[in-house]
Amino acid sequence: MRQGNQPDEIFRAVHALAASAIGFGLFTIMSYDAQREEVERVYTNMPDVYPIGGRKKKRGTVWANQVLQDLKPFRAQTTQGIQEAFDDHAVMTSMGLGSILNIPIAYDGVCVGTMNMTHKEGWYTGRHEEMGVLIGAFLAPALIICNMMHADSATRL
Q: Coiled-coil intervals in this record (predicted)?
């Protein structure tokens, strides 16, 4: 966080730590806009498939209530679990990804974004959730800044 080129430097550092401690095929970081009830991709390790700037509406879903409102990680260990929770399940499963772990990133009890990891079927465990919550906490300052910048630019429009 002390280095320049933020938030990219903190995103890359968290990416590297999550890769070695937890593991994944696909890794993304999303900022959360509570007013619009949508998430926006601010970091990805697969920009050709999941580009930065991609947005998803999350209003009223079970996933949104659990992750964005209740601040509880979401874990699906099978392709069926991914299919039940995500519209883009076919893209993930076509890449051989069959389990997912979504970590809510919060500050002062409010969700500011998510850290998302997808891997082969059966990969993620409760221990990975615990590690993800700890690792993901380093993203809070960067996501707060991202959200402030997005709110400021929306105000100017």
A: none
